[in-house]
Amino acid sequence: MQYTKRDKVRIQNISSEKESYRTTWRKDYARLIHCPAYRRLQGKTQLFPGHESDFFRNRLTHSHEVAQIAKSIAIRLNYLLRKRGLSYRINTDIVEFAGIAHDIGHPPFGHQGEEALDERMINFGGFEGNAQTLRLLTKLEKKELIPETHYGFSESGEDKRVGLNLAFRTLASILKYDKIIYATKEEREKALAEGKIHKLIPVKGYYGSEKELVESIKNHVLINPNIKGSFKTIECQIMDIADDIAYSTYDLEDAFKAGFIKPIDLITLNDSEVVKEIINKIQLALGKQLSLADIINVTGRVFNNYFGYKKIYSLGEDVVLDDEVLENIHTTSIRYAVAVSDQIAKNGYYRTDFCSQLIGKFIQSVDFSQINEENPCLSKIKMDEDIEMEVETLKQFTYQYQIMSPKLKMVEFRGKQIVSFIFDTLLENPGLMPADFKIIYDFATNETGRRRAICDFIAGMTDKYCVEFYAKLTSENSQTIFKPY
After folding, report:
1. Which of 76, 290, 294, 429 sits 20 to 30 Å CA-CA off 8?
2. How far apart are the C-alpha atoms of 109 and 46, rounded to whole Å?
3. Could you tell me the pLDDT band of residue 483, with boundaries at 50, 70 and 90?
4. pLDDT given at position 332
C-alpha cells in the first residue's frame, strides 16, 4: 500500500537495475525462487518426517500453500479497497514472496533443531527461526559479491555480505517480530522473572547483529518514521494470517491422514492434560480466559457441516420414550458420529472438501481494522473474532497432539541430539566444515562470530543431510564417509 521509490532501494546499490519490464518485487521473487535455501525447504520437516510418506507436507509445500492463501487474502483485500472507493492497493508479488520465504531460516528437525542451536548460542546472540530467515536473506545467500571483499568480508574482517540484496520493502514483509532477541541467558532469565517471557526457549525476533539493518528497513519503508507501536507491514500481516490458516487446516489434514487425531477427538473433549495445555496456549495467543466448554463450542462449529447437517431424530419436547428406544437412539448417534469422523479422516475427497471449506471461510473473514493514513504500509487487518478462535484452536490441537505423540517423541529426541552433537563436534574441530563456511569461520574475530558461523552452517542443513553428516562423524559406512558434501 502506497509504494515509493525508497521501498525499492536495495541493501547495496551494486549494479544498475536491468529488465525494466519486471518490477523490483518480481525480481526479488525470482531471486528467492532460484536460491539454494529455497530448494532446501523440500528436505525440511513440516509436521512429519519426509521419509514417512510422499503424501505429507514438507516446508517447501507448506510455504507454497501459505503463499497461495496469502495472495488470495491480498486479492480479496484489494477488491474491498476498490469497492470502498479507496486508491490503495496491496502488491501481491511481495505478499507471495513473504509466504514462500517465511520459514526459510528454520533449521533441520523443526522446533527441536531450533532448541538445540539456541542452547548452543544462548550466550552468543541466541538462535531463532524468524531471526535466521532475515539473516539468511541478507547475509548468507550468495547473489551479489561486494567489490573488494573476500567472500563478502573486508581485509579487517568486517562482514559486508548482503545475501540476496533485496529491496527494503521486500525485507519488511518477513519481519514478523519487531524486537531484538535476548543475547544472553542472563538477559533471558531476567525477562522470565519480570514476566515478559514464559520459558527459557527461543525468543521470536531478530538478532542484535541485524539491528542497523532493521533500522534501515524502517527508514526506507515508513513515510512518517514517528510511529507508535510495533513495525509490521500489511504484507507481513497477511503472510502471518495465511501461515496460521495453513497450519490449522493443511497440517490438521496431515494429522488426520497419519492417524494421530480424528474429527471425533475434537468434539468429544475431556479435561485431560493435553486439552488443558491447548486451552492455555489459546488463552496466551488470544489474550482471553477460556473454559473447556468454550473450546467444545468452537470445535462443534468447525465440524457442524458434517456432524450437524443430518438430524437422525427430530423429537418434540412432549415426546416420552422408554429406555430401550433411548438406548437405540444413543447407539445410532454414536455410530453415526464415528462413521462421519472416519469418513473425513480416511477419505481423501472428504478431507479435501473439509479443508477447502475451512480455508475459504477463513480467507473471507479477513478485513481491514484500520487504514493508516500516515503510514499506509502499517494499516491493520484482522480476522473475525469467532473465526480467529477457530483457527487458533485447530492450530493448537494439531501442534499439541503432534508433540505429545509417542510416535514423534523419538524422532524429536534424536533430531535434537544429532544437531547438538554436530555443533559440539564442529566447535572442537571447525576444519570439518565445508571450505566456504570454514573461510567465514576464520574471518570471525571472537567466539560469538565463530559460533555463529557453525550455527549458520547447521541451520542451513536439510534433515537428510544433517543425518548423513552425523553419520560421517560417527560411523564407518564408506557410503557416507566418501559422499561429497
Report:
1. 76
2. 9
3. low
4. 60
Owner of C-alpha cell 445410532: 332
H-helix or E-strand spanning residue 126: none
Q: Where are the alpha helices (DSSP H) in 16-58?
A: 24-33, 36-40
Q: What angle do CA 308, 310, 316 make, to 5 degrees?
A: 90
Q: So what's the pLDDT on residue 93?
A: 97
Q: Does 81 score more than 90 pLDDT? A: yes
Cα separation, 135 vs 27, whole angstroms: 20
Domain membership flag for residue 165 = yes
Q: Which residues does 240 contact at the CB level (< 8 Å), separation at least 6?
A: 176, 232
Whether 482 shows a pLDDT value over 50: the answer reads no
User: Of the candidates 102, 463, 69, 113, which has an alpha carbon nearest to the alpha carbon of residue 250?
Assistant: 69
Q: What is the CA radius of gyration of the chain?
A: 25
Range of the domain at 201: 6-242+372-380+407-474
Within a domain: residue 257?
Answer: no
The domain tally of the chain equals 1
Separation of alpha carbons 202 and 390, rounded Å? 26
Measured between alpha carbons, how far is 9 from 13 in angstroms, rounded to an integer? 8
pLDDT digits (tens, 9 = 90+) for 13-39: 876 667 788 899 999 999 999 999 999
Residue 159: beta bridge partners? 153
pLDDT of residue 478: 43
How many Å apart are CA 189 and CA 147, to the nearest integer? Answer: 42
List pLDDT tens digits, range 390-403: 999 999 888 887 76
Angle among Cα 329, 331, 337 to the nearest 5 degrees reads 100
What's the pLDDT tens digit per position in 308-361?
A: 544 333 444 455 545 565 455 555 667 777 777 888 888 888 888 888 999 999
SS3 category, 380: strand
Q: Are the C-beta atoms of 246 and 69 separated by less than 8 Å?
A: yes
In a domain, 18, yes or no: yes
